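Bench notes, afternoon.
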Amino acid sequence: MRLFALVFACLLATSYATTYFKDTFDDDSWESRWVQSEGDPDAKNPPSFGTFVVDYGRWYGDTQRDRGLKTTEDYRVWAISAPFSQPLSLKTPRQGSVVLQYSMKHEQQIECGGGYIKFFSKYF
């Protein structure tokens, strides 16, 4: 009975969750949702930005379900953004927590690198 109550409580909690952003890249319209950064053209030494494609990569289980953003060149800076489906506000504790989940595969054989996610205002 306790197991049933625990499972029921978990299902009830997830039924009230709001998804603010999700992209499965299951069609070719991703470029209308995502904006690739071109950097600041007035910068003194602008970085060399790489471009993204959607692909399933070298290691995959399913060619459609495992599609995601893929960098196309080594030794570049990559920056891309997409908006949430609705505003995200955490001004009161009653609004709960934010859970961010993503996965990343490093296929290149480079010695340094990393992935960063940043939240910005829509006015940034």
